[in-house]
Specification:
- The chain has 131 residues and is an all-alpha fold.
- Helix content is 87%, strand content 0%.
- Helix 1 (2-40) packs antiparallel against helix 2 and helix 2 (50-72) packs antiparallel against helix 3.
Amino acid sequence: MEASVSTDLNQQQLLANIRGMKGWLKFIGILTLIMGILQALSLIGILWAWLPIWMGIILTQAGSRAQEYAERNDPAALTGLTSKLRTYFVIQGVLLIVSLCLAVLGGILAIVLGLFAGGLPELLKQYGFGG
């Protein structure tokens, strides 16, 4: 009897959490989609605009699966929700790793260019190697 009550409480908490998520998932998904469309309007942004568009679609679909689960308590909808969220977070994680790598490379490039543009030429002039 106690296990049944505990399971019912867990199910109610899960349902409440998913009901609270569905609107936010759709809202953030639509805004991300709009940002991707706006990026696509620029010349340079068109190269990577497909990423926020794709991510916006995934979040909107996750919001729809959350709504299905909240309305019908369908386990397939819950599976679809977690699948969409997993895909979104994998994409977000890969983008984060790529961004960090580019930031490190940019920092190294800035240091190297700083040495050659300001520090190194002056040092060479000081020792008579520069013009």
